[in-house]
Automatic annotation (TrEMBL):
One of its GO terms (molecular function) is oxidoreductase activity, acting on NAD(P)H. Coiled coil: none annotated. Residues 6-307 form the FAD/NAD(P)-binding domain. It comes from the Bacteria. GO terms for cellular component: cytoplasm. This is Ferredoxin.
């Protein structure tokens, strides 16, 4: 009897991989195992609608337990896989959980995700210091935030700014502390960073750039103050840390898989052991834009696309993912939509008016369309995403004309999509 496919990590990528295997006609057993007690759920809303109290975890389910059962996908929750061993050189083996359970498999997929990077300063273990990655994290933070008056958010990326927006909307005094010289610096063009700095400030959030945290202080194990590198201090009865994530590579290391800032995979989601695939936030992969170098893409779209590719690989098909990376963030009433990433651009066009909080930034490199950052400008975002997906461009001179609809200026494909 076949042991079937084991997917370690009940994540967005894990669920998609399991469902895609069934879509491809896989008839054998599929087991999805995760260390959280909840059925697999969406993570992006945790720092948005869930943290704001608008939805419960059941409303975030990726697929209902009934659907997964109907697909004959076995889901094991609340089970941390501590060790994985392969039988010889093949892909089969056994996984062992912290509770003493064993799951045998013929094929293995790792969709283990990432963990929050910890703040390494004195006082980081005080009560009132929290991170946001899981549904339990968000539920705990939601409860803590009800009683908090002064909130300090460490980190000016997507998670930090989304959490800051929720806290400020609840009337809290909020300060964002960012060590870099601009907000969301890894993901957006400088003009968009400047906009979000101004937009948060207009709404009453204090933003401190080029500033790092040197210590957290408090009494009776409760945080009371955040000390900064410039010698100043901010009162805080709640500190939310959002300084990035670290891929979970422990199991990959056990298996001797190549890891370098994540589990290294090729364009077919194959690890350095071609019989083992990996997908999602735990991986680094060939840059889908340039084909040169390796990148880690933390997004729902990448998790879904890479999981579909991994499923195809397990099913014996060669189908590299060619989808355009896209991202989004909801902060206050501002919806940011990104297609591809803008770092490396040498020219840009701003359409609309940032002061009216509806605009887009089209980024170019060597005259070619590279990416778009759109704030409350869905039509521009969709047009650029379509152009990028089909290997087309939108000329900068056309984009500079505010009276022109971008969808009408998408050129013919210049490369294979």
């Amino acid at each position: 009897m076949h042991a079937g496919t084991l997917i370690v990590g009940a994540s967005q990528a894990g669920v998609q991989l399991a469902v895609s295997l069934r879509d491809l006609g896989e008839q054998g057993p599929i087991t999805l195992i995760g260390d959280e007690k909840h059925a697999p759920y969406q993570r992006p809303p945790l720092s948005k609608s869930f943290l704001g109290g608008d939805v419960g975890v059941e409303q975030l389910w990726l697929r209902s337990p009934e659907y997964l059962a109907d697909q004959a996908i076995s889901v094991i929750t609340g089970a941390l896989v501590e060790t994985v061993e392969l039988a010889g050189s093949g892909p089969g083996g056994v996984a062992r959980t912290a509770g003493g359970g064993e799951v045998h498999f013929d094929r293995l997929a790792l969709t283990v995700g990432a963990r929050p990077r910890r703040l390494a300063v004195p006082g980081a273990d005080l009560d009132g210091v929290t991170y946001l990655r899981t549904a339990d994290d968000a539920a705990k933070l939601r409860q803590m935030q009800r009683d908090a008056q002064s909130v300090v958010v460490v980190g000016g990326g997507f998670i930090g700014l989304e959490a800051a927006a929720v806290a400020r909307a609840q009337g809290k005094a909020v300060t964002v502390v960012e060590a870099a010289d601009r907000l969301i610096g890894r993901a957006v063009a400088p003009v968009v960073s400047d906009f979000y700095h101004a937009a948060h400030t207009r709404r009453g959030v204090t933003v401190r750039l080029d500033t790092s945290v040197s210590a957290l202080t408090g009494r009776k194990c409760q945080v009371e103050s955040v000390e900064l590198s410039d010698g100043s201090a901010i009162p805080a009865d709640l500190v939310i840390v959002g300084i990035g994530v670290e891929p979970r590579t422990e199991l990959a290391d056990q298996l001797g898989l190549t890891c370098d800032g994540g589990i290294v995979v090729d364009s077919h989601a194959r690890t350095s052991n071609p019989g083992v695939v990996a997908a999602g936030d735990c991986t680094v992969q060939p840059n889908p834009v340039t084909g040169r170098g390796m990148v880690r893409l933390e997004s729902v779209q990448n998790a879904i696309g890479q999981a579909k590719t991994a499923a195809a690989t397990l099913a014996g098909r060669v189908e590299p993912s060619t989808a355009v990376p896209w991202f989004w963030s909801d902060q206050f009433d501002l919806k940011l939509q990104i297609a591809r990433l803008s770092p490396g651009h040498d020219d840009f066009v701003v359409r609309g008016n940032p002061e009216q909080e509806s605009f887009s930034v089209l980024c170019y490199r060597d005259g070619a369309l590279l990416a778009v950052d759109a704030v409350n400008a869905a039509a521009d975002y969709m047009a650029v995403r379509k152009a990028l997906a089909q290997g087309s461009t939108i000329l900068a001179e056309d984009a500079r004309n505010p009276g022109v609809a971008l969808r009408d200026r998408i050129g013919p494909p210049t490369v294979s999509a």
